[in-house]
Amino acid sequence: MRPTVFSLFFCAVSGVCPAQDSYKVEVLKQSPPSTLAPEIRGALNEQGFRIIDDKGRNLADVWLRKAIPGSEAPTGPKGAVQFPFLADGELLGVLQFETEGHDYRDQPIAKGVYTMRYGLQPVNGDHLGVSTYRDYALLLPASKDQSLAAPARKQLEEKSAESAGTSHPAVFIMLMPPAETPKAGPSMVHDSEKDTWGVVLPLGLQVKGQAQPATYPVQLVVVGAAAA
Description:
The chain is mostly beta strands and about 230 residues long. The chain has helices at about 40, 155-165; strands spanning about 15-20, 25-30, 50, 60-65, 70, 90-95, 100, 110, 110-120, 135-140, 170-175, 185-190, 195-205, 215-225.
């Protein structure tokens, strides 16, 4: 199985447990890449997270946005959408591959820096069986994503497809974290049933009408891909 980074995946099922060995996550005191557009870089936390594989190698680095705008406080899924409070195309953060990575469709993603933006899978036959939920994150080449403002849907998908060098966007399924995962700090979990490794990271969510951002954890699968 090829390593797949940043597919958010539901783990509140049997076979999921806190991970003690193999893949690890650690706090990264290194600042976001200087090559980012000033508007993007200024919206990120200075502290990041490093995902380390089972051989001790750097799999990817992640810097999350300081405060992601939310239209309302999270209250759970609405139908097939788990994050109805997020706007289409909203910036979630930035990731950097040290070597070639792969998305949830197992498309190769070249070494480099990418922005992560929120989106919803289209409701059509091309996406049947990929996930119970429609939420996902798209990777865009950071060199071509210069503004904090959310791009239009067509532009979002076209730029994301450039990350994979194909006609399909580079996507990572985005779902809720395990119910038993603590909210403070990063952690790793292993789903033995699906044979995936995931990292749980704390997103900062700025809910409309609230004075301060709240911490909202999400899980990102660092190893695993959709069934062929």
